[in-house]
Amino acid sequence: MIAALTGKLLMKETDRVVVDVSGVGYEVFLTTDGLARLPDLDEELFLFIHTSVREDAIVLYGFLQRDEKEMFLNLTSVSGIGPKLGLAALSGMRVAELSQAIVDQDIKRLTTLQGVGKRTAERICVELKDKIGRLLSGRPYAGAAAGRFEAPGTSSTVMDVISALSNLGYSDPISRQALSSVKHRLGDDTFYKASVEVLIRECLRTLA
Known about the structure:
With 208 residues, this protein is α+β, with helices and mostly antiparallel strands. Helices cover 50% and strands 18% of the residues. It contains ten helices and five strands; from the N terminus they run βββαββααααααααα. The chain has helices spanning 32-36, 66-76, 83-92, 95-103, 107-110, 118-138, 156-167, 172-186, 188-193, 196-207; strands at 4-12, 16-21, 24-29, 44-53, 58-63. The protein is globular, with a radius of gyration of 18 Å.
């Protein structure tokens, strides 16, 4: 199973992208929010991947952050919710907001999501409330009360920093979390103007 992809963004459409990995193009479906946060064409891209195997097709679903993939898997475990509806739900609400709505059993809020009616919202709450509650109490989702975690982006500078940290033995998720902490500490303007060397140094301070 494909769990992650790193390559160049070759094509971008309204609901999917093609990622060029060493000359092989992988078609990956994303949320509308994920598509809006992608880098420019021909730039490096990292995606967490869920591989869906059907009788007639193998379909890849991509996510810029691990918690988005985890929420997608949670949603699609609910009876009556398939991958398309799972992506639609994540397109309409960030993970932290969606997690809180589920824990609070906020049916009205959940029904604002595309394709989610009252009965589906009720099933989501019944089947996921306890599970999401344990996740929220155990570690922060993006933007959860325990600490805001924002995607550091996928610019060439960010990807160079992640590559450098990988060479030092840090996993991709750990590197991205360190970058997010640095971004929060420095502020957006300083973060995006900083050089690769500066960001590496700041990340190593965070990881120390």
